[in-house]
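Researcher: Structure for this, please.
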Amino acid sequence: MGDRKKPGFGKQLADLHRWNAWLVVALAASGLLLSWGAARGWLGEGRAWVKQLHIYLGLVTAILLVLYAPLARKHLKQLRNRPRQRGNLVFVFALLAGWLLSGIILWQFRHLPPRWSNNALVVHDLLTWGGLPYLVYHSVTRMRWAKKPEKRAVRPDAAEPASPDGTGGLHPAASPQPWMSRKQFIQWSVGIALTAAVAPSFFRWLGRSFVGTGGPGGMAGGADPNRMLPAPEPLPDSVRVIGGGAQGRFRVYTVTPLPTFDSGSWTFTLDGLVDKPGRWNWEQFLKLERVVQVGDFHCVTGWSVYKNTWEGIPLARLLREAGVKPEAKYVKFYSGDGEYTDALSLDQANMDDVLVAVLHDGKPIHRDYGGPVRLIVPKMYAYKSVKWLERIELIDRPHTGYWEARGYDNDAWV
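Model: Predicted structure, token format:
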């Protein structure tokens, strides 16, 4: 039997193009699902599986780019007289390479400096906002039905009559040219529809990632819907913002509707396996002795905010004053949204930088960012820093937190 004939250059390109198109569709679907706030709740543990699928699809894309590399030179030479197609090829290749490199950094963020992942996340998002609409536009406008030329066949009864000079030749009647071809109409329609759909979300993302939202460290600049009076009086170091002010932008993630609190009904509780359980209203809580510290804030999704000046009560002091019973092994934290919980071992909870915070950069913590009171655990990823903290309970057995039950690591060390 003779050797099987190797596929030609054109078929190789077509196969790679087709596989790449399906991979981009799958990457887009899984990536958008991961970034969709509402999906964080109902996906549950499935979110960890979607994340792994997204990573594996990205690695397969890398393989396709490696397979394409030997063909690239010949392909570009083939397109030397077609500048638009050549430009499209270069753009798509740069887009895929950028997605791949930034995605690898986000995948391996634990082994790299946090600033790398911060920048990689911005690049990954920017390529997504710019790249996906372009790829959708490119795909729709290059479908066969979009490229099919309009049929302008001339009917016999539309011919010109015989000429007066008797030559008698029938000449087709001149058909008026439309001001916009079918292809142009489709291109403009798709472009306008994509702009209308994408632009509002893009500018919201742009504001969060580059412009901020008006407050320190990108904290919300609008009025705080929490009604907490009086406002906490900041300590001198907190007023001076001893870390120089937060560097970076916070992103708001929540799995429940954002709760609202009022100082008239707000309470903070410390109970469980302690000798002296405590319960404070807002005014009593503000009288507890506070400290000021500077620390970095790292989210497991890849972004960080550096040099935050936090003011609050050291958790170790609260536990010491409550008198922890010998059988207590873990500290459980309850969020005021009624849904979110997490836990630290007793040793972790007694670290000297774990703080029950009430101020950030000298100002009350906005509701959107976990105020009026939130936990701060600087050495761990932020899903351990419970927002809207209103209760601490000492327990004798491990507790699986909200995100740990959905696939996150119990080992949350940065």
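Researcher: Any notable elements?
Model: The two ends are 60 Å apart (CA to CA). Residues 150-173, 211-215 have pLDDT under 50 and may be disordered.
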